[in-house]
Amino acid sequence: MMLLLIGTTLCAGIIVSALLAIHLNNTVSAAISAGMASLFAAITYVVLAAPDVAMTEAAIGSGLTTVIFLYAIRRTSTDGSKEPPEQ
Fold first, then answer.
1. Model-level pTM?
2. What number of CA atoms fall less than 13 Å from residue 56's CA on the CB side?
3. Which of these, 4, 21, 32, 62, has the minimum number of CB atoms within 10 Å of its CB?
């Protein structure tokens, strides 16, 4: 019974984080929310006794992918202070 409650709570966290990632207007917040969905998935894999999959999901899904998204957002966002590149 307790495993069912934990699994349901974690799956609800995945769904809420994914919906937030879709509906947030701030790109950085959406990237963080998508990382949280991957983190909830990694915890779910631990509960389901799949630690190898959980480590991969935590490292790639919530770690590396989120860092790459945040880096790309930072590199592509413009604040108006930089001049456009010359052609």
1. 0.79
2. 5
3. 4
Alpha-carbon separation of residue 18 from 1, 23, 33, 35, 39 (angstroms): 26, 9, 7, 9, 11
Q: What is the 3-state secondary structure (H, E, C) of 20-71?
A: HHHHCCCHHHHHHHHHHHHHHHHHHHHHCCCHHHHHHHHHHHHHHHHHHHHH
pLDDT in tens, 43-69: 999 999 999 999 999 999 888 999 999
C-alpha to C-alpha distance for 18 and 79, rounded to whole angstroms: 28
User: Domain residues of the chain, as ranges?
Assistant: 8-76
